Each structure stands twice: as structure tokens, then as C-alpha cells.
Design the sequence.
């Protein structure tokens, strides 16, 4: 292992400049800028290192156009004989930089042992660490049976439909092609992330009747109906959700409970004409909700908590009418702590950092959901060098030492999963 570790240490400059190069390709999503450039940049590098490289454009998935093609890259290196396949999956997309930066978000400047930029932490730094780790194994000439794969996929930040979901539908994340998956999302360098809570997004619309704003009694205000619903949510649902606590090791602490975010409310006529409101009684008000739920909860019960309140209002409140439709839903997923990939990564963390790793569950979903749900592969974790809280923040950065540590953990985990070391 010593020679592998010193090889990884010696690749520090390369690791930093590769991360910088990735950050300088601003793969902002939405809309999905520069995917092709980024996928091909990664593909060219891995081809040079001996991988066979394949590109898969996710035609007809949300957002895919000739201007914004959803291009994914999958690289594969086969060992001397057949065996297990270890796959590292990273998403190439980043969120918009937003306000509040003190450095250029797409320059990738290095300061105080950190690389700054949008996507350094989430998750181009993790991607770079996995590439360096696998290249180090190959350069060491370590003989192994089995296969190493690295993929760069799109659209994780918008649901992953054109990325991991698309590839999973095509069998890229199922046995026998793949056995173990590590997703280098930023969950901190000494933690193993086993999965995530569930999510349900829905839109509730209350309906009214339009009338002149000077005679509201002749109409029926959809906004007043919505406020009666919001009142019930405040009085009854929020306190009830506070009571639900999971045995899943979710971080941060607050996310151990069920949560509900009221994402947006839109009601009445808009102010498009000279900023003046239209003097009308609103006949529609729409609320979008983001409900995150626990492994102990059933999705039908989660939905019923909302519809029960709405139906109660239909009974009790004159003229209350509503529509509801689902926008998105994913069940919670949690890999078993005894799964091979969990054991391999945990043992490697202990080896390298001398610390017993913490098992965590992510408050939000990530691409593991598609691997579990579509690929039916349950030997999957997220493990990566970034600091979770920095994701999507201004002045996002990745600590270079953490990338080196993570690369060592990834390399040793791979050798364990391929049976090279025990
Ligand atoms: Zn991410």
C-alpha cells in the first residue's frame, strides 16, 4: 500500500490542476451548459489512461436539445480476468453561482490549500479524486481481476433524469455489469453516506371565482381558501411532523425529523402591466410543497396527511375546491451497513485516517435513488472529500488534503472490493 499511497501523494499537482480544469468548464444546470465539453474532457483523459470510453446522450429527457445535449460519459477498464466491477459515479453539473462570491466562481483559484469555485465541493473535487485514485492503481501495475468504471453524468441537480436514471434504464447500473457503486458526493472525508430520505413534491391549487375587486362578495377568493389550508398546515401538520423522528442516521440533526418546505405560492392575476395589479378576485392559487420523509413513513400516508386536511376543508368550508398533482417522488433508500461497499470504504477510512467512520444519511436525495430503484443495485454509497455544508454556497471550496485522503480511501476500497487486498 505504501507505494500506492506515495504515488497518490506525488499526483497532488495533477489532482489540483485537473480539478481546476473541471471547474473552468461551467456546467451550470439548469439549463445544462457545456455538458459535451466537460464529458469529452473527462473522456479524453480517461482514454489516455487506458480506459475504453463511451458517450451516451440522453435524447428526449427533460432539457435535452441540440443546444443543451444531455451528454454522459462512461469509462471502463477491464482487469486481467473477469471479476467484480467497481463503479465511481460523479455528476458533472453544478448549480448557478448566485451572489456573494469573493472569488471568480469559475476560475478555480488555489488559496491556503483549497481550490475555490462552483462545483469544487459538489462534486468535481470528488470526481478528480476518484480519477487520480484509479489512475494510480493502473500506473502501479497492480494486477486485478474485474473491472473499474468511472462515469460522469448530467442533471443530478435537477433530478438526474438525463443522467443516472437514463443510464440505469439502459442497464449501466445493474448486475452483471456493475457490482459496487461509490458516488463521490461531498459528505465529508470521514463519513460513509448510506442513502437519503424520501421526497415528495406536489402542487396544490385552490379554486375560486373571478369577480370585480370592488365587489369581492360577488366572487370567491382562491387565496382565502389557500390561507385556510395554510393555517391548518401551521396548526396541525407542522407540529405533527416535529414529532416524527427517524432511526436513520440523518445529518444534520434537524433532518432526523420529517420536514415540509412550502416552496412557492402563486395566486391571482400577475402584475405584468406596468406593475399594476389587476382589480379582480383571484380564481386560482397554487402552492408547491416539498415534503421530505423518513424510512419509517409510508409515502401513501405522507400524501394522505395533505389530502386529509384538504378534504376536511371541503367538508367544513363553503365552496372550498382544490386540485392536487404530484410533481416528483422518490422513496428513502439506505444501504445495509453489512453491504460489501460499506465495509470496504469504512475499513479503508479507518486504515488511512485512523478514525472510525460515521455512517450518515443525506437529508436530500442524490443519484443513488436511480441506482436502487431502476438498477436494483443496493451495494452503493456516497463517499467524497467535500464538506457537505459548502455545497451550493458562495465561495465553495475543496480542501486539497481531503482530496488526497479520499483518493487513498477510494483506491484501497477498490482493491478490497476487487479482492486484491483483504
Ligand atoms: Zn452533488
Sequence:
Amino acid at each position: 500500500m505504501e507505494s500506492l499511497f506515495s504515488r497518490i501523494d506525488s499526483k497532488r499537482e495533477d489532482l489540483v490542476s485537473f480539478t481546476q480544469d473541471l471547474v473552468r468548464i461551467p456546467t451550470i444546470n439548469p439549463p445544462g451548459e457545456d455538458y459535451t465539453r466537460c464529458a469529452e474532457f473527462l473522456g479524453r483523459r480517461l482514454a489516455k489512461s487506458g480506459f475504453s470510453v463511451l458517450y451516451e446522450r440522453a435524447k428526449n429527457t427533460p432539457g435535452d436539445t441540440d443546444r443543451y445535449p444531455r451528454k454522459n460519459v462512461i469509462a471502463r477498464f477491464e482487469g486481467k480476468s473477469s471479476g467484480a466491477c467497481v463503479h465511481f459515479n460523479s455528476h458533472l453539473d453544478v448549480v448557478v453561482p448566485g451572489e456573494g462570491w469573493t472569488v471568480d466562481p469559475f476560475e478555480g483559484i488555489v488559496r491556503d490549500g483549497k481550490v475555490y469555485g462552483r462545483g469544487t465541493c459538489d462534486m468535481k473535487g470528488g470526481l478528480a479524486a476518484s480519477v487520480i485514485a484509479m489512475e494510480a492503481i493502473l500506473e502501479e501495475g497492480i494486477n486485478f481481476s474485474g473491472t473499474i468504471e468511472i462515469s460522469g453524468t448530467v442533471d443530478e441537480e435537477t433530478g438526474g433524469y438525463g443522467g443516472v436514471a437514463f443510464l440505469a434504464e439502459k442497464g449501466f447500473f445493474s448486475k452483471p455489469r456493475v457490482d459496487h457503486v461509490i458516488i463521490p458526493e461531498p459528505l465529508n472525508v470521514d463519513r460513509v453516506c448510506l442513502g437519503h430520505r424520501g421526497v415528495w413534491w406536489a402542487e396544490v391549487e385552490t379554486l375560486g371565482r373571478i369577480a370585480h375587486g370592488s365587489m369581492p362578495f360577488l366572487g370567491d377568493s382562491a387565496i382565502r381558501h389557500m390561507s385556510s389550508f395554510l393555517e391548518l398546515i401551521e396548526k396541525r401538520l407542522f407540529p405533527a411532523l416535529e414529532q416524527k423522528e427517524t432511526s436513520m442516521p440523518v445529518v444534520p440533526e434537524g433532518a432526523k425529523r420529517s420536514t415540509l418546505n412550502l416552496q412557492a405560492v402563486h395566486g391571482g392575476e400577475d402584475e405584468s402591466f406596468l406593475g399594476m395589479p389587476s382589480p379582480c378576485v383571484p380564481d386560482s392559487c397554487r402552492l408547491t410543497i416539498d415534503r421530505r420523509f423518513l424510512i419509517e413513513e409510508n409515502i401513501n400516508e405522507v400524501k394522505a396527511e395533505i389530502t386529509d386536511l384538504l378534504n376536511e376543508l371541503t367538508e367544513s368550508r363553503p365552496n372550498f375546491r382544490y386540485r392536487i398533482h404530484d410533481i416528483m417522488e422518490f422513496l428513502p433508500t439506505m444501504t445495509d451497513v453489512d453491504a460489501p461497499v460499506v465495509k470496504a470504504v469504512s475499513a479503508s477510512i479507518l486504515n488511512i485516517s485512523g478514525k472510525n467512520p460515521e455512517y450518515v444519511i443525506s437529508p436530500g436525495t442524490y443519484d443513488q435513488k436511480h441506482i436502487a430503484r431502476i438498477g436494483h443495485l443496493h451495494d452503493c454509497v456516497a463517499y467524497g472529500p467535500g464538506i457537505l455544508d459548502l455545497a451550493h454556497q458562495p465561495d465553495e471550496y475543496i480542501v486539497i488534503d481531503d482530496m488526497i485522503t479520499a483518493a487513498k480511501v477510494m483506491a484501497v476500497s477498490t482493491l478490497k472490493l476487487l479482492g486484491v487486498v483483504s
In short: The first helix runs from residue 2 to 10.
